[in-house]
Write a structure and sequence with these properties.
three-stranded antiparallel β-sheet
Length: 162
């Protein structure tokens, strides 16, 4: 039994006419998201990063050599505003994890590049993050993890289409 079961039992008592199964799914996703975010933040903090900074470094690292993107590509990848991106880039640049250079193809724009120090930090943070997530999902069998991922993918794709 989990905290969502308690809520569902109370609602079933008060409103037996409603199908509350979707509430159980959504409620558990919401609680799990908060728990996972908190655990991830602790993991990232061990590398001197916040979630948003990890996200930027991760996007650059995933982009492949030369690990460079323009701010609009980063904003689109991370689904955030350019203003919010600027604050993250300022902190990462001050820490020596990224560098900004003028884009030779468009002199009104900058290119953001992962520095060697940034590459080292994101690789260590990602290794730790992957290990942490494996531990957090070890209560599920491999088949359950795969089925859960597939179900959540289906739900996410459907909701993003709306």
């Amino acid at each position: 039994m989990d905290p969502i079961d308690v809520i569902l039992d109370q609602w079933r008592r008060e409103r037996p006419d409603l199908d509350l199964t979707p509430m159980g799914v959504a409620g558990r996703i919401a609680v799990l998201a908060r728990v996972l975010e908190g655990r991830a933040e602790k993991s990232f903090a061990g590398h001197g990063l916040r979630q948003g900074e990890f996200d930027v470094l991760s996007a650059l690292r995933r982009s492949g050599p030369p690990y460079t993107l323009i701010p609009s590509e980063l904003s689109a990848t991370l689904m955030m505003s350019r203003a919010g991106m600027t604050n993250r880039l300022d902190r990462l640049e001050a820490a020596g994890l990224v560098e900004r250079t003028l884009d030779q193809a468009d002199r009104r724009s900058f290119r953001i590049t992962l520095t060697p120090a940034g590459h080292e930090v994101i690789d260590a943070a990602m290794t730790n993050h992957a290990t942490n997530l494996a531990k957090l999902t070890e209560a599920l069998t491999e088949e359950e993890r795969t089925a859960t991922a597939e179900s959540l993918r289906k739900l996410l794709v459907t909701l993003l289409e709306d």
